[in-house]
Design a protein that fits this description.
alpha/beta; Rossmann fold; binds adenosine-5'-triphosphate
Amino acid sequence: MLLPTADARTVRTRSLALLKNYRGQLARVVIVQALAAVAALALPWLLGDLVDAVATGTTVAFVNRLGLVLVGVVLVQSLLTRFAHRDAMILGEEIFARLREDFLATVTHLPLSTVERAGTGDLIGRTTNDVDRIQWMVRFGVPRVLVTSSTILLTVVAALLASPVTALSLLVGIPIIVVAVRRYLRVATPAYLRNSEAFARLNGVLTESVEHATTVDALGLGRRRRRITDRAIAEAWDTEVVTLRMRVSLFFWLGVSFMLPVAAALLWGAWLVERDAVTLGAVTTIALYAMQVRPHVSELLFWVDELQVALASLSRIFGVSLVEPDRAASGAAPDDEHIEARKVRYAYRAGTDVLHDVDLDLVPGERLAVVGPSGAGKSTLGRMLAGIHPPTGGSVTVGEVPLVDLPEEDLRSHVALVTQEHHVFVGTLADNLRLARPAASPEEMRQALDAVDALGWFGRLEKGLETEVGSGGTELTPAQAQQVALARLVLLDPHTLVLDEATSLLDPRAARHLERSLSAVLAGRTVVAIAHRLHTAHDADRVAVVEDGRIVELGPHEDLVAAEGEYAALWHSWQQE
Ligand SMILES: Nc1ncnc2c1ncn2[C@@H]1O[C@H](COP(=O)(O)OP(=O)(O)OP(=O)(O)O)[C@@H](O)[C@H]1O
C-alpha cells in the first residue's frame, strides 16, 4: 500500500494557500515585470511612429530625437527586466524553501507504522525525485510563467490600443493553439506517468543486476538478466516514443500558430493600408508585436507542459500530509513513572494479531528481561512499551496516561527505545547530541559523553564537540556511534528504557566495553531488555517469556528455573551450549 496522493482539488487549494503567503512579493514581481513589458512595448510603438513620420515627411532633428528616446527606452527596459528577474528568482527560492520545510516537517512526523507499510522506497521517491521536479518548476517555472504571461497580456493590450483592426490579426493563431494544447493535455499526464513508471522499472532492473552482480555471476543468470533488461529498455523506449511523438506534433502546430499572426499582420495590414484604413506605421507596430510575443507564447507553453509533470509530483508531495496521524496529544500529564500494559494487542496487517491481550505491570526501577523464540513478538512488545506504535487493542500507560496521548517530545522523556541502529547524522558531534536535548550546554554534553565512557576518544578529537561527523566528516566506529546514541539517552533522561538487542551486533570486546557504558546509562531507570543471550535474563529482577504473542511465564529467574517450565528448558539448553 503506497502513501496517499492528493487529488487535483487538494493540490489546487494547497498551492493557492502556499502562494497566499507571498501575495505582496507576487504583486511586486508582476508590477515590475509589467513596467518592463510596457517599456519593451514602447519600442514597436515608437518605431511605428517613426515609419509614419518618415512616410509623411519629417525633419532629421525629429528622427534624431526619436532615436535618443528609443535608446533611453531600451536602457530603462533592460534595468526593469533585470529587477523583475531578480525578484522573481528570490520569490521562487522562498516558495520552494517553504514547501520543502513544510514537507520535511510532515515527513518527520509520519506515523512509523504507515511508513513501514508503504515501504521506504515510496517516501524516498517523493523526497528526492518529486522534490527535484517541483524545485525546477518553482525556481524557474513560477518566475518565468509570471514574466511571460504578463508580457503576453500587455502586448495584446498594447496592440489593441495601437490599432484595434490590425491587431485582430494577432488572434488567428489562437484556435490552433487551443486545439493543439487541449489535445496534448488530454494525453500528456497518463503518457508521462507511464513513461516515469517504465523508467522506474528499468532503474530497478539495472540496480538489481549491478547490486547483486556476484549472485548473477555465480548462478549464471547473465543471459536471463540481459533478457529482462532488454524488455525493460524496450518498454521505456516505447513510452518515450509516445511522449516524443506527442511533443513533436504539439510543437509543429505551435510553430504554425506562432508564424501565422506575423504573416496575417502583414497581409491584413497591407490590405488595410491600401484602403487607407490604417497607416503603414500601425502595421509596422503590430507586425513587430507579433514577432515580439512569439518567444513568450512559446516559453509559456513549454512551462504549461512542465507544469503537468510538476502537478503530478505536487499531488504526491501533498499526499504525504494526508496520512492520518496515529496519535493525538490529549493534554493529560502522568503523575508517576509507573508503566503498565493492559490487554495489549497488535496487528501489522489487519486481522493478524502478533500480540494477544498482553498484560504487563512494570515495577519502577526494575530490570525486566524479555525472552522467547524468534518471531514470538518480543520486539513488537518492546515497541508498544516505548509508545512507537499505538496498540491495535488495549493500552500502554505511564502514570495512567496512555503513551500515545502524550506529545512526542514528552513521550521520549518518559520512555525511550534503544535499538542496534545508531545513525550518526551529518553535522557536528554537538548537533548529534542536541537532538536529545536542544538546549544542552557544552558542559552537559561533555558529562553525557563521560557517563558513557566516551571521553577517551572524544579527548582526541581536535575540534571536540564541533567535530564534523557523519558521512563526509570524521568517521565514527560502530562502537563510538553507539556511545553517542547512549550519550543522547543520558541527555534525554527518560525514567524507562526498552533495549532491543542493544549490543548483539558488535564484536565481543567492543560489546563488553559498551556494556559498561550501557550500565552507567541504565543505573536508576526502569529497564526492559529484550534478551537474546540468557545471561541478561539471569541478572534481571524478573523475566518475561513471550511465546506466540503471549507472556507465558513471568517471574524472577530462580522461580522460573524452579518451576521447570518453558524458561527452565531454555535456560538448561543455553547452559549446555
Ligand atoms: N514490520 C512488520 N510488518 C509485518 N509483520 C511484522 C513486522 N515486524 C514483525 N512482524 C511479524 O510479527 C511477528 C513478531 O515479530 P517480532 O519481531 O516482534 O518478534 P521477535 O520475538 O522480536 O523476533 P526476533 O527475536 O526474531 O526479533 C513475527 O511473525 C514477524 O514476522
